[in-house]
Amino acid sequence: MKLSGERDLFRRKPRSYNLLFVLLGLNIAVVIWAVSTLQGIQTGDVETWFAATPTATRAPSSYLQEGIAAFETGDLQVAINAFQDALAVDPENVAVLTDLARIQTYSARLLTPGQQVARLEEARINIDRAVELGPLDSNAHAVRALALDWSASIAAENADQRQDYLIEAGQAATRALQLDPQNVLALAYQAEVLIDQQQWVQAEQTALEALDRDPNLMDTNRVYALVLESTGAYSAAIEYYKEAARINPNLTFLYISIGQMYRQLLLYDEALDYFDQAASINETLGIGDPLPYIAIAKTYSREGQFFAAAINAERAIAIDPENPDVYGQLGIIRFRARNYEGAIPVLQCAIEGCVAAENAEFGTTVTSLPLAPGSLEYYLTYSSVLAAFGICDSAEPLFVEVRELFPGDAISMAVIAENQAIIDGFRAQDACKTISDVLVDN
Fold first, then answer.
1. Closest by alpha carbon to 153, among 107, 205, 202, 192?
2. pLDDT for 121-163, tens place per residue?
3. Distance, C-alpha 398 to centroid of its chain
4. Claim: this prediction has a pTM higher than 0.90
5. Cα-based distances in Å from 208 to 201, 202, 213, 220
6. Which residue positions in the chain have pLDDT lower than 50?
7. Can you give the three-state secondary structure of the chain, one letter per residue?
8. Residue 188, Cα to own-chain centre: how many angstroms?
9. What does the alpha-carbon distance between residue 264 and residue 268 come to, in Å, rounded to a whole number?
């Protein structure tokens, strides 16, 4: 077939006046479209061509999937961020609030004592909101028991506050089981509360019941291990902590617990191996967590290997150079190594705080760490160093703080009394010094 581009002979040629009518119709249609479009823009029913393209909103489920995946890999901070993003989209989702509070509670174990208080407060706020929105939700009450119990474990100097937390935690666990008697996590958390209430027999029975009901949960194994640990059965506790770690292999606080059990048994090589595993998991995930290195440093310190201990403590500071807890740990290691002059600057940064110019060794500003159970050892150690050198004006305010906050702690009172006697001797001889005097002399 020849394709010449010529018009088909069998097609009728349109007449010219028909073309005029077509053009006129098109013009009218354009005018109508333009008028209607302009009215739509003015009323907001139609957007202009140049209006910004709406940004798609992620569904809460996508954040939840991200959070669950991060939790399973052990990156608890990423998991927390994802659940918080989900709440931003759906702020009254009880399940999301509950899971967020649970992960926040776990994550407190990965923080130094000064940071744990704030993290657990966040967990309590979220789980209280979950219970408020879902008063009949058994899981919400169960996680509330967990958050309150862990808060009691690190409660500040106020013994009444600790007791209040434990009472509330017990009530929350009981309520969770009333709402759902088959809630195994609620049973496990109830056992954990009973441990802290020192009801050993009932705690063991409850933990065993939870473990029998579901031996494949991380928490049922973890809590039973905690029961065994609390009764000094460290070897048996290790096996259940290991099972918990097998179920959730990337939760580094489980490896820290295993290492601590080995350290209690004086099996230092095994302890170091598990602390190193925790550090390796963090390194793989890109998590800057100083705690495994602090645990390693403490282990070397117990072995009398103070040089290795100091190296690991300094590495912890390199990871978190503004954290006063880490400075306190390094100060204790140097004190035990009898490097008293070296202990003074880092303990001073931990307890009094320091600006970058004062922190000659690490060059970072550090905020002071308030006196609390988690920091008491730092205060006692610092007061002992200051007393030994006769740094009277810096030592005596520490004596006052410890006496006010821990009047019933016999060991602390004995240390302070001994340090006070030393300071009194320096004052009697008019031989008191300043920190600058000591550091310059040495």
1. 192
2. 999 999 999 999 999 999 999 999 999 999 998 875 577 888 9
3. 29
4. no
5. 11, 10, 9, 8
6. 1-38, 41-54
7. CCCCCCCCCCCCCCCHHHHHHHHHHHHHHHHHHHHHHHHHHHHCCCCCCCCCCCCCCCCHHHHHHHHHHHHHHCCHHHHHHHHHHHHHHCCCCHHHHHHHHHHHHHHHCCCCHHHHHHHHHHHHHHHHHHHHHCCCCHHHHHHHHHHHHHHHHCCCCCHHHHHHHHHHHHHHHHHHHHHCCCCHHHHHHHHHHHHHCCCHHHHHHHHHHHHHHCCCCHHHHHHHHHHHHHCCCHHHHHHHHHHHHHHCCCCHHHHHHHHHHHHHCCCHHHHHHHHHHHHHHHHHHCCCCCHHHHHHHHHHHHCCCHHHHHHHHHHHHHHCCCCHHHHHHHHHHHHHCCCHHHHHHHHHHHHHCECCCCCCCCCCCECCCCCCCCCHHHHHHHHHHHHHHCCHHHHHHHHHHHHHHCCCCHHHHHHHHHHHHHHHHHHHCCCCCCHHHHHHHC
8. 21
9. 9
For residue 401, CA distances in Å to 48, 87, 405, 413, 414 come to: 68, 41, 6, 11, 14
Residue in the block written with tokens 């109508």: 32
